[in-house]
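re: ur question from earlier - yeah i can do the single chain one, its not a big deal. heres the input i used so u can compare w yours
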Amino acid sequence: MKVFDKIKKNYTQLERRDFLFAYLIVLFPVLQFMIFWFFVNISSIGLAFKDSMGKLTSANFQMVYKGFVDEDMLGINLGASLGRSLILWIVGEGIIFPITLITTYVLTKKIFGHYVFRVIYYIPSLMGAIIWTLLIKEMVSTKGPITQALKAIGVDLPDKAKHSGLLFSEDTAFLTLVIVRSVMGIVGNNAVLTGAFTRVPDELFESAELDGAGFFTQMFKIAIPCIWATICTLLTFALCSIFTCDYNVWLFTDGTGRCETSTIGFQLFNLTYRLSTGNDSTGYGYPAALGVTLTAMTLPIVMVGKRLLERMSENVEV
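and the output i got, formated as tokens:
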């Protein structure tokens, strides 16, 4: 006790005020977490271990396991949905995100017409998810401009795609979803990355040019290391949603997930929705168990991924 009393006496009144201010700032997000995540989800976690009569059981997790390796009692193949989610995530973060980095950096260099291109990039971000999805659905429908353009240039579309649209054919539906995900991914982080790139001092680029550094050298050796903290944050959030993001499958397919377009996030939402509308006789324990399983799968991925991202480059203050 004497040691702690000595430590307390060493703090000045100003330092104690600073500590109090810091603790109050931290307290706010902690309260948000407790109210909007812990207290909301604690009942869902409990449901995962209960049957419809409220008794403890592991049957819900057994059904989840069966759904991943084959099909569950509702005829849903969770393994196939998980595979599609991984493909969409890899395309979005492994291919499209680097392209977004390059295009955003090019626009920040104030090339000819960069203001026009920047506005074009921002427009999809200003549109709501429902409006954007409905617009895409109409564009790939039977009489939509994309479908008609493919027919005009002689692309051999499947008969079902010609008569019902690209999202109604098993041969084109998932590919269409991947392309839509790619387009939306390019414009998704443009605003955040633009703000990060513009914070990099121009003097660094001017000094690099005097030393003979080219365009890509400046981008990879100066620009990207300077905004690496922002990149880590964006990719960490992307890792958090690797299994839960539904990629608007519900809106694109009118809640059916038809033609092999369902993702694991869509199935989680679909199961809960069907139960809430009384269209299913099973209890909430199954979707709750699926949510707990996905959380358990996501947590180590996020922790390891964040650690690896932080190790890939030093944090540069600008």
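The radius of gyration is 25 Å. not sure if urs matches, ping me
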